[in-house]
User: What shape does this take?
Amino acid sequence: MIRSLRYIYVIVGLAMAMAATVWGAVRAGFAIARSWIHDISPISIKQPKPKCRAALVQPKAFVTRLAKRDRPTVMARWRMCPST
Assistant: This one.
């Protein structure tokens, strides 16, 4: 009985040591990734952002053309179906 408890304590101790080692490696990896992202972020801030005004001008012009166009009045003789 005492021997089996010692084995359990040894196994639990080894498992805790392995968990602490893995946790330390994970924390170090996150720290390295965070520093890498922090070092890279000023580079992306310094680059000029592309202006997207041209992308918005064309749809706006299209909408204004649609609003300004002359709409014909539909007459009864224009119908395709002669039954009515």
